[in-house]
Design brief:
2 domains, 9 helices, about 65% helix, about 250 residues, mainly alpha
């Protein structure tokens, strides 16, 4: 087995066995390979539970990652003004996949005697599924992740509006060079006041674009949180009904 395969096996281990297994593996190696293994970080309970979904419930994990990719693509398409970007449908699918991944992590963790916080699991899965690049190799996550608000929109460059039929593509004022703006206004030499106004307009345009991205990402996070809360409530309600039924049965057997 390759060293990478042996490292993967470390992250499949029960959490309390990681350090012992890592040290045992390091003793079988030499040189740089020994240093590489000894430098491996033991996961905390939340990333460990997320890793177990990757290793033991891969279809659930893959479904979440793919739904996150679809949501990210839909949000980017919407920001770029492309038609047919169904952000709502992609968001619904992503919330379902997110809830399923959290339930799988809780189930696998409980089987190993661990109890990671559900909200931390949700945030970590959300960040993983919306990131343009994984922060760590899949199945080897070592720390919980926190959404920054821009995962789904990383690398987005809003496109210019499509050209009108029979005419050239219009160039946004914020994208014009100083010379183009001066020529478009008139042959009059721009004053310092004109330049200040142009700089202020450009800054306002950049701020609007950033606000749009932040709002879209916040909406996606809020929708995911709402779905997770609804799923948690449904589970709690089911447990309440089960407890009532068990109590009623015990009373009837007196």
């Amino acid at each position: 087995m390759s060293l990478d395969g042996k490292i993967d096996d470390l992250y499949r281990q029960p959490l309390d066995a990681f350090v012992t297994a890592r040290n045992a593996l390091a003793k079988t190696l030499t040189g740089d390979e020994t240093k590489r293994v000894r430098a491996l970080v033991k996961p905390t309970v939340v990333p460990w539970a997320v890793n177990q979904v990757y290793w033991q419930a891969r279809p659930t994990y893959d479904k979440l990652i793919k739904s996150g990719e679809r949501l990210r693509a839909a949000q980017i398409a919407s920001l770029e003004g492309r038609r047919g970007a169904d952000v709502r449908e992609a968001g619904d699918s992503h919330r379902t996949a997110l809830a399923d991944a959290v339930k799988a992590a809780e189930r696998l963790a409980a089987a190993a005697g661990a109890n990671p916080p559900a909200d931390a699991l949700m945030r970590t899965f959300e960040t993983l599924s919306l990131a343009s690049e994984p922060p760590e190799p899949p199945g080897r996550l070592t720390k919980p992740l926190q959404p920054s608000g821009f995962e789904a929109l990383a690398g987005v460059t809003p496109a210019a509006r499509p050209a009108t039929a029979g005419g050239p593509r219009p160039v946004p004022a914020s994208a014009r060079t100083e010379a183009e703006r001066a020529s478009a206004r008139s042959d009059k030499k721009p004053t310092e006041a004109d330049r200040r106004k142009e700089r202020a307009a450009e800054e306002a345009a950049r701020k609007r674009e950033a606000d749009i991205k932040a709002s879209a990402a916040a909406l996606a996070r809020a929708e995911a949180a709402e779905q997770f809360a609804r799923t948690a409530w449904e589970r709690s309600h089911d447990k309440l009904l089960e407890a009532r039924q068990a109590l009623s049965k015990l009373k009837s057997e007196r």
